[in-house]
Amino acid sequence: MSDIFREVDEALQQEKAARLWKEYGPTLMLAIVVLIASTAITTAYRSWSSHVNKGETAKLVMAAEDKDIAAAMEQATIDMDDGHKAIGLMNAASKAAASEDFAKAQTLYQSVADDKGAPKDLRDLSTILSVRARLLVKSKEAPDYKAMAQSLSLVANSSRSPFAKLAKLEAALLYGDGLKDYTAALNALQGLDGQGLSESIKEKASALKRVYEYEQSHAMLEKKTQ
Prior knowledge:
Helix content is 75%, strand content 0%. The protein is mostly helical. The chain has one domain.
């Protein structure tokens, strides 16, 4: 996956970058929503793990051994405290996404995002993953890109959230690919090339910047010729 972004990042022409994104974009979105869940959930969980109760943790471990992990995790969270419930539901959502039941994954992630009692880090991550899952739901109705971008802005503008930069990247995708608002997309990408950021985020931000700069200039050219 990183090779695709590296090729885009090294492209000599913005048009090539745009073509690559259009070709690989859907595949990348599918891979990202499945792969990021396990590592990101683990990171957020560690920041909260000092409060873990062994009894409820055991329920989650048992649920993870069930054949239908998603259903077992969801069932196990009934009557759990907010922290354990959030972990269980996020794991259930991850398994649903892995089986391409993105509607179910979106519902589960959103339930954690809306739970004010859940740890904030987990709510922030669930907000991002809920948006990603919704984009992959096959529906006759187009996603509400504007509403989703606004929900991400709450995370992106939080100086204390470890997922703020990731939320900015996701917002850029919504503005650029969803709303075709390339100016807003480029604004969202500002600050994603500095120190302290993961190479993955910087590579993706650089690739998207090339794409949206090209799309913006192309749209402006078409407008002038009309």
